[in-house]
Write a structure and sequence with these properties.
This protein is mainly alpha-helical. The chain has two domains: 61 residues, Arc Repressor Mutant, subunit A (Orthogonal Bundle), CATH 1.10.10; 68 residues, no CATH class. 27% of the residues are buried. The model has no long low-confidence stretch (mean pLDDT 89).
């Protein structure tokens, strides 16, 4: 089963983290980052996890360090860069593959992702975490599209 994409962060917070990292010449301790943002280290872990998963940063002995890709993170409009990185990680990679030329409900998409080994811990049948991650990251970066009224996922029209 694939790792679960970190829940509890979003594109705006990633942009903020990348700005802080640039302001600190590409490295900052987690404790200093917590102090600067007014968050607990535990609250920052999902965001740090996303930055690592997307290849923008890595942890070295309690210090978050920008990778070469992270140093190239565009301060203006990073959405295309984030979108291209999301397409390489789960659940986005499989969702794009599954949705190619198709439209489906959250339940249908979740079932197909599960069949591929991509699961989210769920409460009930709402697939709340999956939907949250796909909207916060996939829809925000225009990697995937979602019609809330019809509960239909698809790829954006080109």
């Amino acid at each position: 089963m694939a790792d679960i994409f970190p829940v509890g962060s979003g594109v705006t917070r990633l942009r903020g983290l990348m700005k802080i990292m640039r302001d600190h010449q590409g490295s900052v301790s987690l404790s200093h980052l917590a102090e600067e943002t007014g968050k607990l280290v535990d609250e920052l872990l999902p965001l740090v996890g996303v930055s690592e998963l997307l290849g923008f940063a890595r942890i070295e002995n309690g210090v978050l360090v920008l990778t070469d890709l992270g140093r190239q993170f565009p301060p203006g409009n990073p959405l295309p860069v984030i979108r291209s990185r999301l397409a390489l990680v789960e659940p986005f990679k499989s969702a794009v593959f599954i949705l190619n030329g198709r439209s489906m409900s959250t339940d249908e998409l979740a079932a197909e992702l599960k069949a591929k080994g991509v699961e989210f811990q769920e409460s009930g049948t709402e697939h709340r975490l999956l939907k949250e991650v796909l909207v916060k990251w996939g829809v925000r970066t225009k990697l995937i599209a979602y019609d809330l009224e019809a509960d239909r996922w698809s790829l954006p029209s080109q």
